[in-house]
């Protein structure tokens, strides 16, 4: 044994190389005479660890562990026990059926979406391959018949309902899985179940009493009569365990979780959590953890500092416990790196995948950018098989116009077994968004939303600009969220007082938006001096321009905010972090400048700063060594790096199109950086008032307004279309139908209504279209068209200026509505609101039809009205009148006549006579004059008064109106030709047609809404398919061709790159030239500096531009609404010289001098260029162009060096 083992010194020159070796376990020994090279002592046995284990069958293992183990089988209550070890039963089923451990050989990643297909080669297990099918996305189960047939031939699903194994080995009887009432033998009633049943009985009784009163309500479950308590319990339990009948149809997918009441039983429900924190969780965190334990998907909306990471951490811990995997995706590479460091420290087993880095991809938790997850899903990566959670951080990024679509694609493509965790800043429409995800994935999403801040914020206005005024800080919004107008007015007064003095002394009034550098410097020096006195550092100063950041930091040359100890710490950290850079790179001007700033506790953070410097600054900042950080908005998007104070240099920013105020969402996101949990009682937010105090309304909206709602940025990309066309079972329209932009389509409700309408149609009485009635249907269609044309014309008239002028007081009109039918009226009043304009009119009618439902509803009269629109129907009996408010559509014609009326008198008199006691008075003078005039007009022209012609009289010359009025004449004339109107049963038959047609029309409309034809992006989809077909990426049947396969590999600008490949634009170029040329795909800024480049490169650029122009024009011809100039304009060649020189080995310091683009931007571009080169290399491999492939490899090697490709400080 171990005890007897003696530590033998290694063999020396004097020792004989002799030794015994035991052969196997049989007791034979052999003598070893030659020493083994590299081993101090020869081995003692050929089997140092004994015999290998014999193979146990899985079945016996499972039986032993679950079915023969008494601790697993409760003695009482086997009914509930069954529910508990259902999982094991599944396991046994699986072991015994052939599906366990065997993968269906007919299925592979090239022909099936099923999880039962064979795994691909190990080299492709991580990223998948662009010839793989994806796995079937969750919620896309609408398979066609032939697919189902195909499916059944190849794969048998594990059936958890039938053919279950029932009798465990060694037992006489076993489980009965058929759905029967729960049978409970008498002997097995234990005390607990008795008590719980008694609770149920007491709970049942009061209900019964209520039910007794309201007879006709559903019968309550009556308590059965029994001989003993036990029987009673058994029967009650039986009542309880009946399966629920048909669940509610229109269920909501998003379930808001109430987080107001404390979660007391948390530790009871989760006695041993997968992860423990050193602090007590908030209610919203506990609720989220409970949902994760139940394996539900959650949407958590909370402020940045509220602790959403807890939810992510718990999911990672759970998946480590379950031996599954979690993918954490974030929108920004820097964020991924920081999360990698945090999770690596917490969990250890964490990997990172970004465009250029790949660290331990076999880990159980993978952190990646959303784009990479998208390509893994499209390419059917094997990682997806083991995936339990996907965590989407910063989901509000779905509003990003450029990249928001990626989130939607990923959410749509995720398979069914993956649960989703969405973490987002507070958004108003969290429930609506979750409802969409729940509906497309067919799973519930629990919405947990909290607006609580662990550290409340106080918002101030600051007007100080000199040592005398440095204390001018006014509270505007207090910690509870009240807007204090008093603070606002004090700020305005202080500022005004100073400005007026200033104006007196200088004469001129300076009220521009901008301030001079020296004014800025004064404000910043004053403010920072004041804040550091009050120990309010660290401060983040948000400035919305990069140059402004740099200038502000440089102007503080006289300021020193660090102690000597801190200076030493900063110095050593700075040196250590940059020690990996080459000597020349350490002397870059930006680095030297930042070193001086950092020593004094000042730093700058924006996209122009070198990535490694940014990371140094972030790390020093989180340690509290950077006291003032001038940052752009990107810093707020990044990781949780809170400060004591946040200062807004201005509240206006340029968003690519123009200047605007900050949106509430942006302001909250940035202001939320103030206040460090556990360190500060409140966070301070300060808005500088440099030129004047901002408008109160603007401030109020920005600070207390609703944050931006999540909006879909879904758009079709060629990559998406090609990736889905590769796979027969997935259609692009499925993707479009599931996008958030189409989330208003409530297909379920529509489907239900459709089936109702179909039944209605089939139950209607048949139509009689014999003999005289043979032209009934065409007649109906003509009438309908006549109606719509008249309606459209009326609208055009009434919306036109001249039409409204004509409809003034005194105009005689023809009225048609439910009550009046071709009646004459005169307008008395026109309302002012332009939206629903109403006209008060005096109308003549028969006595007895002043109020009632007149003849307007009668079908024959409606038809007469359509045929002879000007035929006036005047009262047959004694005449009366009514005053009514009419809508535009009630006026069917505007006549050429006007009358003199006295509107007020008419209306007053009419209203007076509506009261009971004046009901029998004769009408007043004004009314009787007007009615007599109207009657006279009607009698004078019985065939109708001429009406104003829209084209000639009202001068409406638009095509629609002219065509409409001509069409109207034709239709009216054609109505007289029909025979059916002479039939005696015409009215009744016409009513039938009308009823049938109205049902049919609604049905057709719903069928259209449910169909793909109603997708808003469908026309664009056809346009893009046309582009792909004319470039032969897909053939006429939609099958993906070689060019299409290449384009699938490429993530952005796929058409241009593929065309360049197939036109051999890169073949005459050297590796460094091709890298320089391709930089136009990743560089997006404009430059002022003209690049100096070689002739071959210039030719290359011209060819790229001509290819781009060709594609742009083709897109235009196919109907895509982007001009060829716009398409060509997205490719910018400002960095070609820089990249060319870099690829040829020029040091970074010299390259920075070639361009006005900032160092950080150059580095990011070259990094992204490397990703493009990789994609082109892949593409070249598909085409079989090995020369191009090796050229790309060379180019890639040439640019991957020095400061551009230093590894992130977070990842090692």
TrEMBL record:
The keyword Hydrolase applies. It catalyses: ATP + H2O = ADP + phosphate + H(+). One of its GO terms (molecular function) is hydrolase activity. GO terms for biological process: nuclear-transcribed mRNA catabolic process, 3'-5' exonucleolytic nonsense-mediated decay. One of its GO terms (cellular component) is Ski complex. It is found in: Cytoplasm. Residues 560-725 form the Helicase C-terminal domain. Its main location: cytoplasm. Transmembrane segments: none annotated. SUPFAM superfamilies: P-loop containing nucleoside triphosphate hydrolases. It comes from the Eukaryota. Residues 112-133 are annotated as: Disordered. It holds the Pfam family Helicase_C. InterPro entries: Beta-barrel_MTR4, DEAD/DEAH_box_helicase_dom, Helicase_ATP-bd, Helicase_C-like, P-loop_NTPase, RNA-DNA_Helicase, SKI2-like, Ski2/MTR4_C. CDD domains: DEXHc_SKIV2L, SF2_C_Ski2. The keyword Hydrolase applies. Keywords: ATP-binding, Cytoplasm, Helicase, Hydrolase, Nucleotide-binding, RNA-binding. Residues 289-445 form the Helicase ATP-binding domain. PANTHER family: ATP-DEPENDENT RNA AND DNA HELICASE, ATP-DEPENDENT RNA HELICASE SUPV3L1, MITOCHONDRIAL-RELATED. This is SKI2 subunit of superkiller complex. It comes from Dicentrarchus labrax (European seabass). The lineage of its organism: Eukaryota, Metazoa, Chordata, Craniata, Vertebrata.
